[in-house]
Amino acid sequence: MGKDEQDYLFEQFRVERGCLGYLVADPETRWAALVDPELEMVEPMLNSVFEHGLKVIYVVDTHTHADHHSGARELKSKTIAKLVMHREAPASCVDIRVEDGDRLHLGGLPMKFLHTPGHAKDLVSVLLPGRILSADALLIGSCGRTDLPNGNAVREYHTLYYTYGSLPDDLLVFPGHDYKGREHSVLGEEKETNPKMNFEGEEEFVRYMERENPETLTPVYHLADALKANMA
């Protein structure tokens, strides 16, 4: 029997700069995964793991983050967890490298990985029963920028219009960032109202993301330092 969205433990973590991370756990085995832990989330996540009596099996970094320092390595060192990333991730400390369509299980709870590049070439979204952890592939009312190292607007278009476009409308979308205090959205609403999902075609989308979108964004500070640390 599969699990629906009420059958597993799910918790969101937020830091002041808008980064979002997640705890997912199977209540029967108490096996847990921590997804996209920003460095400041390490202690809160471990506290939650302790309070719920969980065993962290996996730490998942959805991609090589360029705008903040990942806490994945610290969590790996403080638990028995294996670090999970896409096969193209440059980090040397990855234990399990996933590809599009791969699954890992927390007891009876499946996590399916979808390769959703564009913001970064190694970006994966994590599909759970009733939810998708979209990282920077799809944000609430927007999408991840494509002008940073390893970004690609064409691939982002295909991620949004084909991969996400084919997923069920009732999926809850939990992104990797939100700067307005929102927790999640619904995929069907994103398809209808998200400006980044409503361009007439690929050429218009790519032109906007490459030429106009960067002018609307704030500079990424400590870019080189974050990439160097997260790629190690």
UniProtKB/TrEMBL annotation:
<feature type="domain" description="Metallo-beta-lactamase">
    <location>
        <begin position="18"/>
        <end position="177"/>
    </location>
</feature>
<protein>
    <submittedName>
        <fullName>MBL fold metallo-hydrolase</fullName>
    </submittedName>
</protein>
<keyword id="KW-0378">Hydrolase</keyword>
<dbReference type="GO" id="GO:0070813">
    <property type="term" value="P:hydrogen sulfide metabolic process"/>
</dbReference>
<dbReference type="InterPro" id="IPR051682">
    <property type="entry name" value="Mito_Persulfide_Diox"/>
</dbReference>
<dbReference type="InterPro" id="IPR001279">
    <property type="entry name" value="Metallo-B-lactamas"/>
</dbReference>
<dbReference type="GO" id="GO:0016787">
    <property type="term" value="F:hydrolase activity"/>
</dbReference>
<dbReference type="GO" id="GO:0050313">
    <property type="term" value="F:sulfur dioxygenase activity"/>
</dbReference>
<keyword id="KW-0479">Metal-binding</keyword>
<dbReference type="InterPro" id="IPR044528">
    <property type="entry name" value="POD-like_MBL-fold"/>
</dbReference>
<dbReference type="GO" id="GO:0006749">
    <property type="term" value="P:glutathione metabolic process"/>
</dbReference>
<dbReference type="Pfam" id="PF00753">
    <property type="entry name" value="Lactamase_B"/>
</dbReference>
<dbReference type="InterPro" id="IPR036866">
    <property type="entry name" value="RibonucZ/Hydroxyglut_hydro"/>
</dbReference>
<dbReference type="GO" id="GO:0046872">
    <property type="term" value="F:metal ion binding"/>
</dbReference>
